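Explain this protein:
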Amino acid sequence: MGNSFGCSASGERLVSAARDGDLVEAKMLLDCNPCLAKYSTFGGLNSPLHFAAAKGHNEIVALLLENGADVNSRNYCGQTALMQACRYGHWEVVQTLLLFRCNVTRADYLSGRTALHFSAVNGHVRCITLLVADFVPNPPFEAMNNQIEGEKGDGSTVRNKNDQSALSKFVNKAADGGNTALHMAALNGHFDCVQLLLDLHANVSAVTFHYGTSMDLIGAGSTPLHYAACGGNLKCCQILLARGASRLTLNCNGWLPLDVARMWGRHWLEPLLAPNSDTTIPRFPSSNYLSLPLSSVLNIARECGLQSPTTPLDDADTCAVCLERVCSVAAEGTSSTCCFHKFGCGHELCVRCALYLCSTSHIPSNIVAPPGSIPCPLCRHGILSFVKLPISPVKENRLHVSLGLCTPCMLHPCDVDCPSPASEIRNNRVASVSSDIFCPVTCSPFPSVAIPLCTCNDGPCPSFESGETEMQDGSPRRSQSTSIEQDKIEGPRLERTTCSNMFWGRRSCSREHQCNSEINA
């Protein structure tokens, strides 16, 4: 739905309600005109869904999606609501967006960042767990069975390899300059994220490209160990070395990880990163944030919904966790007598409690179980998956058509739900925007720019496109106010975090500032 004069005022009211978390106002506006859920602002093309996701208003996000908001809509920078939620670590919003089948593999227009990059650079490990849920349909469990019972020669091995291949491609997807999520998590010292990404088959030997925006700070051809040496986190360097990283890898500047550590003043890493080091590297277990049953309970929630009946049926029991809703799923997993087989305690929960348990639990179970199993809240035995009980009702499908089909490109809109007048309005709105802003980052490489050492701690990073910012914003002081407002929201940052933000922000600061200034107003 477009920004016509008839819905502009109401659309701005909905934007304000979504940003401020006013659920009553948002519900009233959507009851009067459900098409307002597809409204977008004139400047940054941010929808109310972008504002609600960035601020963490989960109830408003669900309300907008139920009223037909496009879960994969992009703003001026090509960022989706999922990217905004992952940027600020609102895992509940990420969970809701996944229930409406959002596209987790989409990249923005500025630097090719996916939601996984936004989560890794800010250390939101729960968001990473949710993002990879659909790529981890219990392959570690099947691999464990193959190791114990031997190869059976059926199609499970082939399916397992295909699932792991899709997971590896998603986790190792490179943004501008070849930076993967592992690079950014290692740079910022987020050990939990690094450990989880390595368990998800992240490439420890991935190198950055010879073009991009971060090459002059660390060097092109750098591995995650080079980035961890720059960040200075000891545990990140240790786990990378334990998982196969090499101390002897040279980047395009001829620097070892040891040289990068010395240039950035990380002298405590020299004994560990020395080429002939005999330092003992500790062994690290699998990440506690890996959740095998998350995929199964997500699929059940998509099919049946989260609204289980609160009044117990004749043959249904009340959930022992919340004591409110009817049990709708049963746990499968390990037990003290039958380890590594798909039956275990069998305790029943409601789908909402099961989904919350899989999204938040990072405590290992008490018994020997495959990595990624979560402890049952009733008996502490490992849970590998959930199955739907026969009494679970099937949810009425109120989802928007775009949730089940691929969302078309903004340059070629095709909204099957809207009548022809609405389609004309949307076409007019999109046509009024210059098509050059929709050019993806892969169309042409961006030349490397010489960037001095980061001085972010003394003030906001300067913009290399101040002239363009003034023309777009209409005031040369808007970019400064945007940086100040963003600092107030994100709070104080460490030096390495601001350096990585400088890596990302050099391509086109003015575009992202224009989008973020609306959300953070």
The first strand starts at residue 329 and ends at 333. Residues 66-273 form a domain with the Serine Threonine Protein Phosphatase 5, Tetratricopeptide repeat fold (CATH 1.25.40.20). The chain has three domains: 66-273, 294-388, 451-519. The two ends are 24 Å apart (CA to CA).
